[in-house]
Amino acid sequence: MSIINTASTTRADLPSLDLMFPQELISLEVSAQLPSDLQIRPLASTDYKRGHLDVLSGLSVVNDLGEVAWVNQFHAMRATPGAYFSIVILDKASDKIIGVGTVFIERKFLRGLGSVGHVEDIAVDKNYQGKKLGLRIIQALTHISESSGCYKTILNCNDTNIPFYEKCGYVKKENEMAKYAPERVNNAPKL
Amino acid sequence: MSIINTASTTRADLPSLDLMFPQELISLEVSAQLPSDLQIRPLASTDYKRGHLDVLSGLSVVNDLGEVAWVNQFHAMRATPGAYFSIVILDKASDKIIGVGTVFIERKFLRGLGSVGHVEDIAVDKNYQGKKLGLRIIQALTHISESSGCYKTILNCNDTNIPFYEKCGYVKKENEMAKYAPERVNNAPKL
């Protein structure tokens, strides 16, 4: 009982945050399973300062363009309602982000004009690994996807991570093929 | 010369169509390589009548909800500018769609707030196969993705289709993992 009360996040815990989407879309069950010193919630417009990109840098090239550009991207994503759902796990004591992930929802003409959730860019601070936080992020994002009516949720991963995603309820389906743009385009900053 | 003139599509060919995005984003090079009796262009709001879902039904479950619902989905996609780019290949004589494909563009916080193009739902009418139309669709979608500044374009395919996508300039990267929603959600029509 006390675990649920301390670990779950309510509106009262987020008095002044400008969130990407409503906190109600975060699974209460997942919130309750987090250690009590951590909090899971939607990405907020002030999360650049809490180290959002620091956590992502453990996953891939970040190329930080600064806070103003980051905030603009946050607002551009939120301007397409029902599309982007980025979440974070915070260490409450330090007010630092230590886990991140996103699901974005694609509309289709197939499957009764159905939708598919694409899970992207999952990362956990290396000092917080071994606490099942990756699993919690996947569970929370899958919950958002399925609550939004997606008939399936997909993600791409390397061979090493297949067993982890199988534990999350996913099965290997197909192959991801990629084509990188010519270097000139690749390195051009977006305006 | 005459091949280019007849096969490429200009604004003059599309006098009254309500398109998902501007025709200018369709590669002129790809247009010019099509047989002269075919035309490649953005999806139009009246393409339900031209058999858009008939072509998609060769790929997956369509579950046709009727024209009004289809048009609503078209407008919902277009209401998120820079996100959805669905294209079609038409047989000019019959005014029927015989090839389809979509790329949608995902914004990220990684890679200098970069974008990734996701190629989805490629299908060609079985009576028109063997004319490299699948290749043309992939080339056109990749052109849209790269022109939009995406640092990479990705897609998922089964083992059999890997050589085809390699010919399109793609390489196998990772594994697609999928989780299907519970049946109750899966079959629920979207409101």
From TrEMBL, chains A, B:
GO biological process: UDP-N-acetylglucosamine biosynthetic process
Alphabetical keyword list: Acyltransferase, Endoplasmic reticulum, Membrane, Transferase
GO cellular component, one term: endoplasmic reticulum membrane
Subcellular location: Endomembrane system; Endoplasmic reticulum membrane
Record InterPro entries: Acyl_CoA_acyltransferase, GNAT_dom, GNPNAT1-like
Enzyme class: transferase
Main location: membrane
Membrane topology per record: Peripheral membrane protein
Catalytic reaction equation(s): D-glucosamine 6-phosphate + acetyl-CoA = N-acetyl-D-glucosamine 6-phosphate + CoA + H(+)
Pathway(s) this gene product operates in, as recorded in its UniProt entry: Nucleotide-sugar biosynthesis; UDP-N-acetyl-alpha-D-glucosamine biosynthesis; N-acetyl-alpha-D-glucosamine 1-phosphate from alpha-D-glucosamine 6-phosphate (route I): step 1/2
UniProt GO MF annotations: glucosamine 6-phosphate N-acetyltransferase activity
The N-acetyltransferase domain, residue ranges: 38-191
EC code(s) of this entry: 2.3.1.4
Keyword Repeat appears in the UniProt entry: no
Family: Belongs to the acetyltransferase family. GNA1 subfamily.
Quaternary structure (record): Homodimer.
Protein's name in the database: Glucosamine 6-phosphate N-acetyltransferase
